Amino acid sequence: MVFLGTILAIHSDESASSGDLVAAVDLGSNSFRMLVAQAVNTPSGMQLRPIDTLRDSVRLAAGLTENKLLGNDAYQRGLTSIRRFGERIRGFNPSNVRAVATNTLRVAKNAPQFVKDAQEALGFPIEVIAGVEEARLIYIGAAHEVPAVQGNRLVVDIGGGSTEFIIGKGYEPKLMESLYIGCVSHSMRFFPKGNIDSHAFKEAELAARREIQVISGAYLKSGWNQAIGSSGTARALAELIAANDFNSHSDDLNMGRVHTSSGLITRDSLRAMKKHLLKYEHTSEVELLGLKDDRRAVWPGGLAIMLAVFDELGIEEMEVTDAALRTGVLYDLLGRSQHHDMRYVTVEQFMQRYSADREQAARVGKLASEFLQQLPKPNAESRADNIALLQWAANLHEIGLSISHNGYHKHSAYIAGNADMPGFSKNDQARLAALLIGHTGKLGKLANNTGFHDWRMLFCLRLAQVLCRGRSDEDLPKVKVSENDGAYQVCISKEWAQTHPLTEFSLLKEAAEWSRIGRSYELSLK
Q1: Which pTM does this prediction carry?
Q2: Distance between CA atoms of 351 and 395, rounded to whole angstroms?
């Protein structure tokens, strides 16, 4: 029985049962991939055993128009692939599936509509993740696959639309960056229609080096003892190097035999591959053992980027692993199920960074969660997930005070919506930012947002914030809340309200604010 990577050393009474199937879907800029694995409990922790893999060369990035719209052909190629994936994981437990989308769907203007159609085709939610979050997951995947090393390791993943650089130690990433250079976008820019020449290749290398120079100082200062190339482009280059004997330092290719060993890229082998490439004028003419048709049009751009990586970071050789984003997604998914959710760590770090009042945050979060528990359970959402999001919002609702008291909720929302937040998807951050912008002040800004649906959580957060204005646990009232078809009712002791006129006045203002946007809100004093 072949296992994927090393043991995930986490323990919990709620660990996945042995035999549970989990799936990761990676909607990349060049390829769509899916990994299905079996979660196996061992005495040392959780392991993954690969069951099935699917890969489609969709080349989504190649379908982007000048106006940053996904063209119809790429749009349909993507949906066709996702429908096949959806059939394979039909019937899976929703908590055992995680689907993520990367660079092209970060930048495409019609990505929201594509994601909506794709979710329907897949049957599961799809998260568009930020570049730094992609880098974090890539590192987790690679770290669980490659042998342990003393000190730091560098992981580089050249995708279709972006390249991620991560330095970490053990299973923990330390430096993470995502640059907008990828094998598809670079090939389209410098080798249009497959044309090749030495000037274009030099320009491609220099363009990539200029991007890498921005981060090279910090990375070189940190240093590493092992360089790893993960998945996609790195694997394709390593296979071509091995198959065509580029590591032999010979000017002539040994085209007569195929080497079965692969997994190492050296600076000399990349230069030999470049020399061979420049013998041709078009990618269709290139003769290389093992060059797949779906890679032929994009590998010149990937080669130029990899050469730039080696030259700018002073790398002489790089080991290659198949494990990358999809593997990291699965390990992160298992971590979430066993209370090792990176989002909790991120929120904790943000509270520390922005000096949040922890007692007030806990007070508001506890009260808001109690209110949400009294309301009807959602039909298509997890109550546990919503409580977690509500508590994160409570923990972060005042971080904007570190910038300015005036309009602090706007600063809190901006930080949550735009900062790099490891573990959070773009949709997570958008929902969180909406709750923060709406937790106080006027509601009109959200009433006009057709994409906002978290009204129950917002109701609970606003009510808790009003009741906790005194920033004390003492003398908080017993409150009953209810909702019927979007109409809210808040029931508080009349006697308590009479002794707390400011709170009663604030609740009446709150009711008026909800009525202003056409939502019923009744304050009942009994």
Answers
A1: 0.74
A2: 7
